[in-house]
Amino acid sequence: MSQMPQLSACPSCEEPLESGDRFCGACGYDLSAVPERPADNPTIVMNGQASPPAGPAGAARPAAEPAAPGRPATVHQPADLQGTDPGGRELPSPAPQSPPSAGSPLSPASGVRFDRPPEPDEYPLQAPDPRIAAELPTPPEGTRVCVACRAGRVDDDGYCENCGHAQPRERDHMEHEAGPVAAVSDRGLRHHRNEDAFSLGCVTLPDGSPATVAIVCDGVSSATRPDDASLAASRVAGEALLAALPAGTHPQQAMHEAIVAASHAVNALAEEPATAREHAPHQNAPACTLVGAVVTSGLLVVGWVGDSRAYWVPVDRSSPPARLTEDDSWAAQMVAAGLMNEAEAYADERAHAITGWLGADAYELEPHTASFKPDRPGVVVVCTDGLWNYAEAAEEMAEVVPLDAAVRPLHGARVLVGHALDGGGHDNVTVALLPFPAPPQGAGSA
């Protein structure tokens, strides 16, 4: 009577076993039905010679023919042996295989195939190949064409119908020049969309002198529809200024009224049906910050709510630059209260938490305005924190403003946006440049 194999665990349920167990105490498996483990008889020993042990059923393996000089020894194929299952029963014989023909990629020593299926020169693309664009019909005139394949029509969702490429959105990068004033806005390198907006304009005052206007808004990312808020505020504030100044309203009063009008426009975005609020009760009302400037022949007026800023940079860089606005932010409040110095406050993680903004859930609207009468020519930099985070102090801003920014404002705005992107582009970045004094109408970038 053969001895029961010694098992450490049940083959059925892996329950640990003790010596002498005939049945598993957990699942009742009959341990006597477990076949004995076959002896470990390697076919190739360490010296490379074949070992001819007997199989489980006692059948002897065919002996290998001795190798003749210059000819490899015969290697037996799996079909040369009669296989058995673990219980010792013979397995059906496999069908005989014909020897490899001449030129076959089978190895004569091992029977392993060394050939591979031919690989295609090119693998199929997930989307239609843009290179077949030449075969597509030319889209009708006025149709928006894909920037990638240059032939496919762009659908209403912003994707090419030919190659599937997502198209750049209109607000990802914007540039505009209005006479002597210019602005550039960019999405930056980290944000999925541009939530900044701006508006520019030139008007003639009642006395015939010129005036330039720039409004820059930064959407509050934690609020609902921040891009809509900044766009509405910039448009309404710009339109209000361009209407009030030719009518004779003092620029500082016109700036105050423009900020109030922008606030009403942003508040209106929150007037949604009750059902919309029920679907998203956790969302805040649309909100944004605002900073603007009006430049005339002898007066400079700025207005703001939030932490977007305005800087003064003189053409003569031997004169000191200056920051013209004070942030509505946690850091600014700490400095104003004497609780921290500026370096400590802006190093705190709460530094950029704003305390003032345009929106239906703002604590209280407090438009800030200030007027200046510079005694020398210069340029006014109106920007969001996407720029001033990389040139916070007035001296730092003056260092990155090109020397010819007053005569080439669009070029200067591009340089400043590039400075922010080179610094990391962590936020949307928008900047407008206004030369002081306001040049005569018709003057622009050189």
UniProtKB/TrEMBL annotation:
Alphabetical list of InterPro entries matching this protein: PPM-type-like_dom_sf (IPR036457), PPM-type_phosphatase-like_dom (IPR001932)
Superkingdom, natural source: Bacteria
Protein name per the record: Serine/threonine-protein phosphatase
CDD domains noted in UniProt: PP2Cc (cd00143)
Domain PPM-type phosphatase span(s) in chain numbering: 180-436
Annotated stretches, region: Disordered: 24-140
Residue intervals passing through the bilayer: none
Biased composition (Low complexity): 56-73, 100-111
